[in-house]
Amino acid sequence: MGLLDGKVAIITGAGNGLGAAYARLFGAEGCKVLVNDLGGARDGSGGSIGPAQEVVNDIVAAGGEAVANGNDVSTMDGGQAIFDQCIAQWGKVDILINNAGILRDETFHKGTEANWDLVLKVHLKGTYCCTKPVWQWMRDNGGGIVVNTTSTSGLMGNFGQTNYGAAKAGIAGLTRNLAIEGRKYGIRVWGMSPGALTRMTSDLPRYRELAEKGDEFPVTGQPDTIAQAMLYMCSDLSGDQTGKFMHVARQGVAELKVMRSKGWEPTHAYTAQEIADHYDEVFFPDA
Q1: Residue 282 within any structural domain of the chain
Q2: Is 164 an active-site residue?
């Protein structure tokens, strides 16, 4: 028996890397999988349904059930078409994993409006476009699970990724709000912040340094291992948890959350000087 027997999942950006690892694992765990991928390069250029079909072929060869989809997640028509194909094929959708994304890394002062718009369109609007029809169906049919992909680049910041970080921070905000709205309808919403060695990350400085040293990349940061965390979130193993963010990378598995300092609670109209005087209460200790 698999952990996802009888379930149906839509996984976007599942032709390579993490998405492909999620799809193959879910297929092995008894889930029927719609494998969506535009089939483009890391920067979003080009496109072919070939990568999605290859993942489908792997799932079917292993005894699972899957179909390929090549629609563009960043348009409402594309999101609707992905949902429609899933419903036509299996009559339901239990799980949506918004994983599709691109990179157009550049420092803010060198960045272009075109790259800003495209990165936000694929990541943030793409998450909206794919979630919208699925959300309505889940709301009317007893619930489900939605997992949105965020990043420490948005939650904590990273040099040269202002467009990507802004998109991922937006997705985190969307996730927190959806979790609140989804509670009464049985829709559980997770945020996934992965740090895996894939074609999207292989040339990042911290990953290149490991390769240059000849160090083997830890198995904890490999897509097949990180996929186990996605399986945890989307299976009964996670119970009724919702609104949480998991960070899964070579360092291990952790929860990320927004924290509030102890705070200073004046009972009067305070001044800027008083905020400075109460610095240790208002702010977290300096690192």
Answers
A1: no
A2: yes
Q: Read off the pLDDT of residues 212-253 as tens digits, 9 standing for 90 and up.
A: 544 566 788 889 999 999 999 999 999 999 999 999 998 899
Which CATH number do you get for residue 197?
Answer: 3.40.50.720
Pairing of strands 187-195, 252-256: unpaired
In order, the DSSP letters of 112-176 are: -HHHHHHHHIIIIIHHHHHHHHHHHHHHHTT-EEEEEE--HHHHT--TTBHHHHHHHHHHHHHHH
Domain for residue 1, yes or no?
no
Structure-token pair, residue 226: 């990180």
- Residue 181 is classified by DSSP as H
What total number of domains does the chain contain? Answer: 1
Considering 22, 128, 164, 207, which one is annotated as catalytic? 164
Q: Is residue 270 part of a domain?
A: no
Q: What is the pTM of this model?
A: 0.90
Q: 202: which DSSP letter?
A: T
